[in-house]
């Protein structure tokens, strides 16, 4: 591909007909109608995520110029960046089947957003690593020379995303960034989207690539989660788009709001503290553990260093404290459930559920949700059985909801806050 000049994709009637026949447009919630095949949609960033990530840049001091995405795919993230920042976009796509779709999507997003950035935006079909040829083609086509304000890259990864190496990404980060370095500012604004499963060693390799080209430039690792106990996006933000802190965790809610936690990665405080009635138990999102920002959360959650971790594995990392956790977004945004311990139990099973329901009722609870490690095929049946037992007591007197989870050598029954 290095010997083949990039080609400008013109979003004309022929391109629109091709896009509609090969990948009919589908409107995403709160966004424009975008063309993509089923396979492209499986790999592409959803519009709600793309636009949320773009909003994180609104407070950044980004220089004037074009937003570059040298492996743009269907151009969803590029379009979200252009729409939010009102900057023209330059996308490059190696696939001859995807490039026309990206051109139509970028044009439609320009109309949808009502911005004027679409006039100087282009999608090129070609190799995203041949920087000089791409810029020459782009500048010749729009008739003016434009600097690059921001480079975003989301390299293609192998099917086995669990174990791939950096060298297996396409285009390779080191080759691509070295190619574009002469055309970027001394301290460039970069967003590198990477696999959420990168190891610590691989993250150090990425940092090494950046420092070998630009030296001691500011960087922020960002983890993004939409809940469900997993990290959906891992990215490195470089230069003007980096946060003052080196690590950032973003929780994107169903409503599109973002809870943001920043800080440093520290060894979590886990002192094997005993569990007793009157203490407060909190189950947090596992993303805190994956991002290694558990201590940044703890420092905001409780005063004077109170509290420590009972469990930092599995789907239910558990925190215990003397006082209730703080009521602010940076804390509550990463909480699955929290409450005060009002009782204990030694067993959670079908055989013990009648006794368990009686105990919960005596503790003033009207319901009891299972937050325990139970086989997936058994959990809903056991929960339904406990619900039936609890209903027998009625809810005229008890109105407080409760939950039960592993704690210490047994189980803690909690009054849900």
Blueprint (SSEs and pairs):
Elements: E1 7-8, H1 13-22, E2 26-27, E3 33-34, H2 38-43, H3 47-55, E4 66-69, H4 76-85, E5 89-93, H5 99-113, E6 122-125, H6 131-142, E7 148-153, H7 173-180, E8 190-194, H8 200-214, E9 219-225, E10 233-238, E11 247-252, E12 258-263, E13 280-284, H9 287-290, H10 294-301, E14 308-311, E15 318-321, H11 329-332, E16 335-345, H12 353-362, E17 365-370, H13 379-391, E18 400-407, E19 410-416
Helix pairs in contact: 1-5, 3-4, 4-5, 7-8, 12-13
Description:
- It is elongated, with a radius of gyration of 25 Å.
- Helices cover 30% and strands 24% of the residues.
- A hairpin with a 5-residue loop joins strand 2 (26-27) and strand 3 (33-34).
- The chain folds into 2 domains: 7-262, Vaccinia Virus protein VP39 (Rossmann fold), CATH 3.40.50; 280-416, VC0802-like (2-Layer Sandwich), CATH 3.30.2130.
- The chain has helices at 13-22, 38-43, 47-55, 76-85, 99-113, 131-142, 173-180, 200-214, 287-290, 294-301, 329-332, 353-362, 379-391; strands at 7-8, 26-27, 33-34, 66-69, 89-93, 122-125, 148-153, 190-194, 219-225, 233-238, 247-252, 258-263, 280-284, 308-311, 318-321, 335-345, 365-370, 400-407, 410-416.
- It has 417 residues and is α/β, with parallel strands linked by helices.
- The chain contains 13 helices and 19 strands.
């Amino acid at each position: 591909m290095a010997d083949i000049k990039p080609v400008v994709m013109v979003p004309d009637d022929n391109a629109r007909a091709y896009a509609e026949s090969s990948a009919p447009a589908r409107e995403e919630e709160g966004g424009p109608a975008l063309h993509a095949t089923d396979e492209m949609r499986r790999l592409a960033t959803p519009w709600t995520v793309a636009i949320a990530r773009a909003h994180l840049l609104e407070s950044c001091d980004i220089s004037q110029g074009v937003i570059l995405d040298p492996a743009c795919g269907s151009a969803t993230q590029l379009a979200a960046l252009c729409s939010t920042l009102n900057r023209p976009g330059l996308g490059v796509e190696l696939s001859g089947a995807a490039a026309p779709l990206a051109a139509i999507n970028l044009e439609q997003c320009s109309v949808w957003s009502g911005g004027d950035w679409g006039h100087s935006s282009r999608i090129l079909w070609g190799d995203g690593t041949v920087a000089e040829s791409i810029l020459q083609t782009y500048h010749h086509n729009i008739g003016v020379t434009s600097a690059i304000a921001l480079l975003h890259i989301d390299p293609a990864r192998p099917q086995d995303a669990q174990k791939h190496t950096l060298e297996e990404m396409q285009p390779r980060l080191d080759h691509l960034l070295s190619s574009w370095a002469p055309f970027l500012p001394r301290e460039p604004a970069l967003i590198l989207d990477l696999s959420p499963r990168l190891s610590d060693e691989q993250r150090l390799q990425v940092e090494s690539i950046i420092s070998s080209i630009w030296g001691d430039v500011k960087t922020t690792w960002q983890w993004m989660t939409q809940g469900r106990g997993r990290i959906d996006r891992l990215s490195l933000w470089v230069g003007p788009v980096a946060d003052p802190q080196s690590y950032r965790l973003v929780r994107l809610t169903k409503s599109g709001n973002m809870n943001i936690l920043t800080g440093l990665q520290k060894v979590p405080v886990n002192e094997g503290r005993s569990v007793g009635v009157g203490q407060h138990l909190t189950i947090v999102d596992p993303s805190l553990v994956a991002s290694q920002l558990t201590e940044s959360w703890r420092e905001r959650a409780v005063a004077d260093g109170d509290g420590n971790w009972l469990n930092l594995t599995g789907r239910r990392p558990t925190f215990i404290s003397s006082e209730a956790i703080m009521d602010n977004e940076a804390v509550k945004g990463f909480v699955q459930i929290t409450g005060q311990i009002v009782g204990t139990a030694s067993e959670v099973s079908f055989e013990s559920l009648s006794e368990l329901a009686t105990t919960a009722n005596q503790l003033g609870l009207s319901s009891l949700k299972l937050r325990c490690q139970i086989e997936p095929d058994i959990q809903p049946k056991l929960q339904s059985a406990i619900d039936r037992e609890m209903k027998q007591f009625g809810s005229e007197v008890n109105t407080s909801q409760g939950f039960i989870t592993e704690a210490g050598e047994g189980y803690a029954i909690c009054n849900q806050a």
